[in-house]
Amino acid sequence: MILPPDNVRQDPNAMTSTQVPADDKGLMTTGAGNPVTNNQTSQTAGYYGPVLLQDFHLIDKTARFDRERIPERVFPDFIHTQKRDPRDNCHNPDMKWDFWAQVPESIHQVMILFSNRGTPDGYRFMHGFSSHTLALVKENGDFVYVKWHFRTNQGIKNLTAQKAAELEGTDADYATRDLFDAIEKGNYPSWTAYIQVFTQEEAMKLKYNPFDITKVVSKKDFPLHEVGRLVLDRNPENYFVETEQAAFSPSHMVPGIAPSPDRMLQGRLFSYPDTHRHRLGANYLQLPINSPLNPVKNHQRDGFMCINNGGRLPNYEPNTLGGPHDSRDHVDSINLELGGRVGHHGYEVTEDDFDQPRALYHLLSAKEQQDLVDNFANDLGSAQLRIQRNFVPVLKRVDSELGKRVEDALKKMNQDY
């Protein structure tokens, strides 16, 4: 038996490396104990380049996070703030407001969430958007970037926070039941599909990063082009089989659609299938709800719940014994020239990050602005005063009036503010 040195085992109550006290503020490390160079930005090939597979911390962090819960679909830091406190397992408002105050570039989405748009009157009465920039690519590799929009044909209907809270207590399944009943009655909800189109050259001329999911692309500069219609015309016969086992993934793209260098998208290309493999098993694509319409031919074998295992064909390639081979003429990526330096290219918050949320605030009616102020104050007011004071300046950078109105509301709620 090999024992550790005396200076390590002399204290039987000494903590191991996995028992670091909760208030420790030392340097961050990987699970293997190596220093983490940058926890906020992934390694990319230049500022606009794609994420690199060599970024072990990103892959390890994402893969570990994919396995934290069963069977939830989960994401790292931001989603942690929306979950329960690791100490008492209760929802803690400090977590989300502390995080949002530290990443003010998120304020546009936060404002949408806390406006009445954040509580639609059911799924039928809301638009859908592609957070990510994607690409449409030709057979020769030429491409354009696109943003997808799905605009409801039922019209927009929102709830106030008060009505949403009331429904949460009296009918938590309100939105799901509304959608199910409409389809069951033959009142099929539909959305018209549009795309915004811009070239690589146009993307590089924008004042902001076109692959930043906190930004929207101007419809004035890049108008919507109608391309189709999405109709929901059937309810699932069994919720678990057709919904709970469904495994959507941004990496499952039909030929002609390709990813952009969007960093969040690049991470999701790995994270979604990885989560499905953890949640449903390595052969999740063999489940009827997930299986493709076209025949599957490859050399992947075995694993739990394997239904189609390739028969007697060899499980390697190249070979001289038969079986599928690759399609070298198939285009699955864009002709994007890269010449950037590999590294952690950080993001600096500038006044440009507040232009679009400011425009959103001014677009709201007087009542909608008041609802936004009330919603902010009522939720933010449950966080610690220190965190409240950290977040209000973010609102003031959006609009001084908005920040002042929320601050005044917080002062009325707490004399110690």
From TrEMBL:
InterPro entries recorded: Catalase (IPR018028), Catalase_clade1/3 (IPR024711), Catalase_core (IPR011614), Catalase_haem_BS (IPR002226), Catalase_immune_responsive (IPR010582), Catalase_sf (IPR020835)
Domain Catalase core per the UniProt entry, residue ranges: 29-325
EC category name: oxidoreductase
Gene3D superfamilies on file: Catalase core domain, Catalase hpii, N-terminal domain-like
EC code: 1.11.1.6
Ranges where the record places region Disordered: 1-25
GO molecular function ontology, one term from the record: catalase activity
Cofactors demanded by this protein: heme
Gene Ontology BP, a term: response to hydrogen peroxide
Keyword Iron tagged: yes
Keywords: Heme, Hydrogen peroxide, Iron, Metal-binding, Oxidoreductase, Peroxidase
Binding site for heme: Y272
Pfam families noted in UniProt: Catalase (PF00199), Catalase-rel (PF06628)
GO cellular component: mitochondrion; peroxisome
Similarity-based family: Belongs to the catalase family.
PANTHER family reported for this sequence: CATALASE
The name this protein goes by in its record: Catalase A
Species annotation: Coemansia spiralis
Gene, per the UniProt record: CAT1_4
